[in-house]
Amino acid sequence: MPEKEIRDVFVVGLRNAHAMENQALSIMKPQLKRIDNYPEVAAKLDQHIRETEGQINRLEEILDGLNEDKSTLKDLALSFTGSMAALGHTVAGDEILKNAFANFAFEHYEAAAYKSLLAVSEAGGYGAAMTGLQANLAEELAMAEWINDNLAALTKKFLSLREAGETAKV
Questions:
Q1: What is the DSSP letter of 36?
Q2: Which of helix, strand or coil describes residue 35?
Q3: Does pTM surpass 0.85?
Q4: What is the pLDDT of residues 74-127, one digit of tens each?
Q5: What is the mean pLDDT of residues 129-150?
Q6: SS (H, E, C) 46-108
Q7: What CATH number corresponds to the domain at position 24?
Q8: Has residue 155 been placed in a domain?
Q9: Which domain, by its residues, includes 110?
């Protein structure tokens, strides 16, 4: 593939990842505001929000290094859809579980995007971008692993709170 085409694929992928991370923030921030009975989830979400903000900065640095801008339109569109997705779970009696399921899936989606970007980066000779992309990938995989490792305990806590008549939703 010609170098220009690889560059175009890489830049579009970086812009998509930037928008994806903004979407992630628009999903996680409302979740964090609604969590009362699950401090361990709140702490992990808060940590991952900070990581996501760092991921956005890394992506912007890579784009800047290529003399490219982020796509404001994609950022806005995906942030809006993320906000709507987060809002959709607020009416569910098992909101905390639905959020965990959605977050688990989204973390894997993000990881796939970074694995693909790393492959394009390697094919195009964009070695300077690889460290930032690998850091983003590692954080997404770590969050997915945390959700995986804690989903059963979260579900049991939800059931326990519900049985006790407490608000189990958030």
A1: S
A2: coil
A3: yes
A4: 555 555 555 445 544 444 578 899 999 999 999 999 999 999 999 999 999 999
A5: 98
A6: HHHHHHHHHHHHHHHHHHHHCCCCCCHHHHHHHHHHHHHHHHHHCCCCCHHHHHHHHHHHHHH
A7: 1.20.1260.10
A8: yes
A9: 3-163
